[in-house]
Predict the structure.
Amino acid sequence: MDRPDSDFSSRPVLSDRVLINGAVTPVTFFADGVLRWTERGERSLIVEKEVLGVKVEGPKVRIGALVDGGGGIFCVGSSGGGLVRKDLVFEPLSEDSQRLWCQKLLEFIDSLGRPKRLFVFVNPFGGSKSASKIFVDEVKPLFDDAGVQFTLQETQYQLHAKEVAKTLDLSKYDGIVCVSGDGILVEVVNGLLEREDWDTAIKMPLGVVPAGTGNGMAKSLLDSVGEPCKVSNAVLAIIRGHKRSLDVATIWQGKTKFFSVLMLAWGLVADVDIESEKYRWMGSARLDFYAIQRIVHLRQYNGSISFVPAPGFEGFGEPTSYNDDGESTNTDPSQEKPTKVRQLAYEGPDINLKNMNWRTIKGPFVSVWLHNVPWGGEDTRAAPDAKFSDGYLDVIIMRACPKLSLLSLMTGLSTGTHVKSPYVLYFKVKAFILEPGARADDSTKEGIVDSDGEVLARGRGAYKCHQKTLMVYDKLQITLDQGLATLFSPSPV
């Protein structure tokens, strides 16, 4: 819990003597929202940052707070032990004083513009299937203490959250919260952008509580302010109500579109992510286990990428021109037919791709990876320079390299040092085209294209290639809309 400097001179709003633990104690509430009192030393509470809510319990006032472990209320300084739930309970010396304390504190909290009504998705099937328990044990108590009303929806099947988001009466809510991994957030974004009122719907603030396997968005948000990726930190960020913009990528093939907020992968990263599902019984260790297998039996893929580089990255690739006549002609019967998005739904950013400066890189590739935010998961700092709303996607390309070097490179994913490898190209783009090809060692086998945990396309001979996918294994185009969506953020931006 932060403490103000000793020369703090903000204007007092209310100063009074109250009972704390049976002792008469002076308490002062200042105009900037700091509450100060003396109890075995100087104590302070920052209402905007730490207070959940205020309740009256008989003659007493209870201020519910979420503070740094060991800090502020019960001892001087902070132990840095993470957020813990602690209350300040005091008894004003008169009923009038009690009413005045509640009035001033609640007026200040109301002035902060915090969300009061939330729609909450809980995915009971994701990750370790613990989201429902996390909501009941950790999320709901904090919402209750903050006086936040909510409507709860447990998802029952894939794309359930998307269906609900497409028809939800958004006028009843101040935000949508996803207690899950990243998948439900992606579904909600896609649902909002398929509404006729998409331009106002997508402005609805979205909150993420880590309760899945990946938790890349929650990790990215909390790590941006140096906080751990924990449920209590994520919930407090939602309660406080600060917001930040988020870029949204449109991945399109013909008339079919998918809206991405996290990443797209093809090659090694996609293969490990999707094919390791056969070892799901191993838990999170399956990713490391299967990554080693894939490195030992390394695949390379033919194909090419084209892109519009961000300023400062024009040196990557070779000049080329935009070609819009390459729509997919793949008619693999195992693929779904492209579905036309309603005309009144979001169609993607309005930009002229032909007039942009395109560059190209040809394969073979070990991996092609695009990222919108820094973290792909709690232990994967895929794109250390990625920003939430800079209008660019970060591209990480891995080329052929010795297997020991690749193994060392992969171990650097947790810190982001992999992008410094001489076998990695790392740059930013405004638009991107992926033309995936077959494996370099076997032209009869193709790969997998994965975006935000959704398999967009499976090529011939790929893992579970018989399963239907949204798109075919062919040319994909990606454009970015800067700051289109809104997230609840741990701090003001």
Observations:
- The two ends are 21 Å apart (CA to CA).
- The chain is about 20% helix and 35% strand.
- Residues 251 and 478 are 5 Å apart (CA to CA).
